[in-house]
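Morning!

This is the sequence you dropped in the shared folder:
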Amino acid sequence: MTKLYLVGALRNPKVPVVGNRLRAIGYDVFDEWFGAGYEADTKWQEYEETRGRHYHEALYGREAVNIFQFDLRNLNDSAIGVLLLPAGKSAHLELGYLIGQGKPTYVLFDKVPDRWDVMYQFATKVFFDENELIAELQDKLPEQFDYEN
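The structure's back. Tokens below.
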């Protein structure tokens, strides 16, 4: 089964919904990062600030390195990526990493953005309709995306 990394935001409730739709058409979807909860990043920052640690120190602390390695391992193991908007800086960095690996990537916009950006052309294809994304990925045989490191 082809592994698909669903990239998004902890505060986007559509992540598990889209993840379930992608699983239903035959993908092994990695979206477990969403289980940390919508406040995970905020709570991590509060904890580190309470400890008196600067962002630079916290970024290389055990918790942050562990989470980064977990996500990186799953990015590397995935054959395809889908960015679900709205999403922030981390999600865009992850999508860029997948693109840099030469993996097919797709972007699903939640709406036409107020501020347009031409760089989404780096993605294999962009969508503004969830059903169209699902149809596109369903029409492709998952084996087409098998990717070996």
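Headline: Strands lie at 3-7, 28-30, 80-84, 105-108, 125-127.

More detail when I'm at my desk.
O.
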